[in-house]
Amino acid sequence: xxxxxxVAIFFDGSEAKSSExxxxxxxxxxxxxxxxxxxxxxxxxKRRGVDKLRKSHSGKLAVVVAPDAAMIHRLIAACDLxxxxxxxxxxxxxxxxxxxxxxxxxxxxxxxVLESLGESGEGKCKGFSFDGCEKKALLEAMKNALHCFExxxxxxxxxxxxxxFDFCWKNTAEKYxxxxxxxxxxxxxx
Length: 190
Hints:
The chain is α/β, with parallel strands linked by helices and 190 residues long. Helices cover 51% and strands 15% of the residues.
């Protein structure tokens, strides 16, 4: 769309260093065609960094501090994309919830959701990832996500795929059993 996607970044406060790195990276990301909401689990945020971002990107950035569970779910449902601001594995697990709402996570390459969505490539919209909490890596991942968002047909396919994901243990266990059976089967010599 012309107005660009709404992106939420969730900071749980568990990784102070990665939170600071993420805030530094956002200045360049906010120059892209998007709007953003920063969601902090508590009020120990780096006010200077956030205030600086608000001033330089007036009208594109909102901040929510210490939201309750209902507010978090409304934010996830309202957004097109989410990013884990702390780059922690705990945050990555939360992204399964985001998928159920059709909100596409831009993930740090810790695994988790990345393995399920796959990477974007060959003109297809799949998942979006970056290495570490580095400015350049996050900016590239967001550019890829925006490119996909602008392709409404493929974006809708991605959202539908995300909403159909089934993370229950039964399905996961069945996949592992099949994998182990394949690995255990002796290969025939040619």
